[in-house]
Write a structure and sequence with these properties.
heterodimer; A: alpha+beta; 2 domains; 5 strands; about 35% helix; B: about 290 residues; alpha+beta; 3 domains; 14 strands; disordered C terminus
């Protein structure tokens, strides 16, 4: 993270830590101020703007990423805490040639309208499907209950995840 | 939003962590799950100069049952670990899936929740009902603080600035334990409008021990001691249950706010207490969508 300061005095007060982490399979090293949030490291440091900042108060789940496979609200974790850990963001879902089944599911079932909540929804859904490849509608609603959507009424998001789960089980 | 500037340390041992806290004094804070502390720091309600992150301290992410039935929960045991546990008493098992939302539960900790001492926090009522306590470790060793003495008031706990809550202890049941936790919330992840934790032990059809904790209906977590006392030595009948529910509602000190009127909240304390005691498996699931 490049920071620009007015003078030596201002810069000398700033504690900085060097961290090493993996993001979407790529190893990274960053020098961060401890108060930097993980969401900012991802968006500004790594340049991966697919992770959205919604409420900034741990409510909406738009900033959800996976840390060592567990869904985490990245606005509520310090970037320094990512030291030694592995992060997955929405950019890590698709391969060079193919969409991830979740992305395909959201497309097929119209799981998004404005799309702002979608990255967080997909990452929370990915964590669910890793644990439970054959979730019920209720399982999905439970797993996504920390992610808010103001457009869809959730119906098509749930359908999208069901679609993806079926695809990942080889049933589609 | 950014927190104000702070120094960050991530020690690898409790001794080191306690030393850092000791040097940091009043301006140091322990960071475990961070699901309350980080938002507070972002809103600048909390501006610690030193944050001591204990996530790298090994051996704190456990919950185990001793041979005598005592349940011990380490400082880094996350809500999700408890939600997936099969060794919990009915009150904790009912509460675990109702803490915040599934994503927050991946990081937040029970011990941290108790330390945060939010009057609307669920775990404090649960641990209070179960007669639990917090083990605090500081430079001069370890002490055990009963939860009723641990929560001092809204967002205030009994820890010295250089103490860390390393473990939460739930005593073993002497009789058959039953109970539950019911929570009224406007949506998943909102603070409790009302929460009621009930833990009852029975032997030969008689209540031998009872605890009732109330969430969100006062300036602090409330122990409905009169209600619990009224149950002790009695069988659980519609009459004794109704009397306890009345007393629990009387113990509540709710205020009218955007979540509901004081009368409504008091009424819900009564309803929840009666409901948990009546079916004895108050899982709380039926309240999820409320």
């Amino acid at each position: 993270m490049t920071m620009v300061y007015e003078d030596d005095e201002a810069a000398s007060d700033v504690p900085v830590r060097k961290i090493r982490f993996t993001i979407n399979g790529q190893k990274k090293i960053a020098e961060v101020e401890p108060r930097l949030l993980l969401s900012h490291l991802i968006r500004r440091g790594a340049g991966l703007t697919g992770t959205h900042m919604g409420c900034d108060t741990t409510n909406c789940g738009a900033c959800t990423v996976l840390v060592d496979g567990a869904a985490v609200k990245s606005c509520t974790m310090l970037a320094v805490q990512a030291d030694g850990h592995s992060i997955e963001t929405v950019e890590g879902l698709a391969s060079a040639s193919e969409l991830h089944p979740l992305q395909e599911g959201f497309k097929q079932e119209h799981g998004l309208q404005c799309g702002f909540c979608t990255p967080g929804m997909m990452m929370a859904a990915k964590a669910l499907l890793a644990r439970n490849p054959d979730p019920t509608e209720e399982d999905i609603r439970w797993a996504l209950s920390g992610n808010l959507c103001r457009c869809t009424g959730y119906q098509n998001i749930v359908k999208s995840v069901l679609w993806a789960a079926a695809k990942m089980r080889g049933e589609r | 939003m950014y927190p104000s500037r702070f120094r960050y340390e991530a020690p690898h041992s409790l001794t080191e962590a306690i030393g850092l806290l000791h040097d940091g004094g009043e301006n140091a804070k322990v960071l475990a799950g961070g699901q309350s502390l980080v938002p507070l720091m972002k809103l600048r309600f909390a501006s610690p100069e030193l944050v001591v992150d204990i996530n790298n301290v090994p051996g704190l992410a456990y919950h185990t049952v001793d041979p005598d039935g005592t349940l011990r929960i380490g400082a880094l045991c996350r809500h999700v670990d408890l939600e997936r546990s099969d060794v919990l008493n009915p009150t904790m098992a009912a509460a675990a899936p109702l803490i915040a939302d599934p994503i927050v539960r991946n990081r937040g900790t029970l011990a941290g929740s108790l330390c945060h001492a939010d009057p609307q926090g669920d775990w404090a009522s649960v641990v209070l009902a179960l007669g639990g306590s917090v083990v605090a470790r500081g430079p001069n060793g370890q002490r055990t603080i009963a939860l009723k003495d641990f929560v001092h008031g809204p967002f205030e706990n009994a820890l010295a600035p250089d103490e860390i809550a390393v473990e939460v202890v739930i005593p073993a049941a002497t009789g058959t334990r039953q109970g539950g936790y019911l929570k009224l919330e406007r949506r998943v992840g909102d603070f409790a409008t009302v929460g009621v934790a009930v833990a009852v032990e029975t032997a030969n059809g008689t209540v031998t021990k009872a605890g009732i904790g109330l969430t969100g209906v006062g300036g602090s977590t409330i122990a409905a001691t009169e209600a619990a006392r009224a149950l002790t030595g009695q069988p659980l009948t519609p009459d004794t249950i109704s009397r306890a529910a009345d007393l629990a509602a009387e113990a509540a000190r709710p205020r009218t706010d955007h979540r509901g009127s004081a009368d409504y909240k008091r009424h819900m304390v009564r309803v929840f207490t009666e409901r948990i005691l009546s079916n004895s498996n108050g899982t709380g699931h039926e309240e999820k969508a409320a």
